[in-house]
Fold this sequence. Notes:
Radius of gyration: 14 Å
Number of helices: 1
Distance between the termini: 23 Å
Shape: globular
CATH architecture: Beta Barrel
Protein name: 6-N-hydroxylaminopurine resistance protein
Number of strands: 8
CATH superfamily: PK beta-barrel domain-like
Organism: Bremerella volcania
CATH class: Mainly Beta
Number of domains: 1
Domain MOSC: 1-119
GO molecular function, one term: catalytic activity
Amino acid sequence: MIGFENDGHRYEEHYAPKRAVTLFNREILDRFEPDGEAFPPGSVGENITVAGIDLGKLAIGTRLAVGEAEIQLEKPWKPCHATNAASGQSRVNEREHLGFFASVVRPGTIRRGDVVEVL
């Protein structure tokens, strides 16, 4: 399986090639705490936090270039909750905000701040 180096999976059923990468929108993380500080990237356990591209409007099969890698959106993903690692604050995903599971089409290095481009 190709995914992120040293990335773990809490449940065995999450360990699958079409679930090698998880993506979530920065804009949705901001909605988990509307009256306070926004939840930081990684709060729902996503590998990649995307800003400026509405993942909810993309179709299954859409490919994205991220850094040197290329990934393909495979299945919508509904995180159960968000946890702010800095404050310990947790919120249930009551509105059922969705992200995506993705497979790796072309492996490569991804770094914080890399541009995410819809292909």
